[in-house]
Write a structure and sequence with these properties.
This is DUF4893 domain-containing protein. By secondary structure, this protein is α+β, with helices and mostly antiparallel strands. It has helices spanning 3-25, 41-47, 50-57, 59-80; strands at 99-108, 118-120, 124-131, 134-139, 144-152, 159-167, 184-192, 195-201, 209-216. The protein has an eight-stranded antiparallel barrel with strand order 1-3-4-5-6-7-8-9.
């Protein structure tokens, strides 16, 4: 075989080899990925501060710590509250009906040494109303008046509360997220027919848990 013919054969083999490599290296088509549906929690997580989102995630621990501290000396008082202080009593359809409510606060645990681990406060009035597509809740009387919005969550038996507190003669609380010393975060649940509770884990008061009970006022305005 002469040199010219040998060179032609080698060139042809190299060309074939190059074609084979190109075929093997060609990426195959990837299946299309379906877009992920937005979660309900995305809305409130976009509003909540990192600290408040963490508090809500730690709600089970707040229940455990608060009840443990309260039961040490106030076991009978805890029992008297029934379902209000039983963590696993949430029912479907957590949204409260707009209107006026009788409300009261029970505080569990304390960060201050010597302070009682169980405190019941006098009843007061609060109000639930509709603002755009959200429910809002406002404490109407007292020197500390929480107010905030209720957001849908992926846990169907609860709503997420994000708000702030007005003090003294202030007409309105500061907007949520403007002052972390005033901000409040918690969970709204229905625990019986016409009975709701709002739980605030690790609130600014230093307690382990604050539990608000809400029951509708018997004679609603306009009825």
């Amino acid at each position: 075989m002469d040199i010219a013919r040998s060179g032609t054969i080698v060139a042809a083999l190299l060309a074939l080899g190059g074609c084979t490599v190109a075929k093997v290296g060609t990426p195959s088509a990837q299946p299309a990925t379906a877009p992920t549906a937005p979660k309900k929690a995305d809305r409130w997580l976009a509003v909540a501060t990192a600290g408040d989102a963490d508090r809500i995630n730690r709600l089970p621990f707040a229940w455990t710590e608060g009840l443990t501290a309260a039961r040490a000396r106030f076991a009978s008082s805890v029992r008297e509250e029934g379902d209000l202080l039983r963590p696993a009593t949430a029912l479907p359809r957590p949204a409260p009906t707009p209107g006026s409510y009788n409300c009261r606060l029970v505080r569990l645990g304390s960060a201050e040494r010597g302070s009682p681990a169980f405190v019941r406060f006098k009843p007061f009035f609060c109000y639930v109303e509709v603002e755009d597509d959200l429910l809002t809740i406002v404490k109407q009387t007292g020197t500390e008046r929480p107010a905030g919005r209720l957001w849908d969550d992926d846990v169907a038996s609860r709503l997420i509360f994000l708000g702030s507190v007005a003090l003294g003669s202030e007409q309105q609380p500061k907007p949520y997220g403007q002052d972390d010393k005033r901000d409040m975060a918690g969970v709204m649940e229905r625990i019986a027919p016409m009975r709701w509770r709002l739980t605030l884990p690790y609130p600014r008061s230093g307690a382990k848990l604050e539990v608000y009970e809400l029951t509708p006022v018997a004679n609603q305005p306009g009825q």
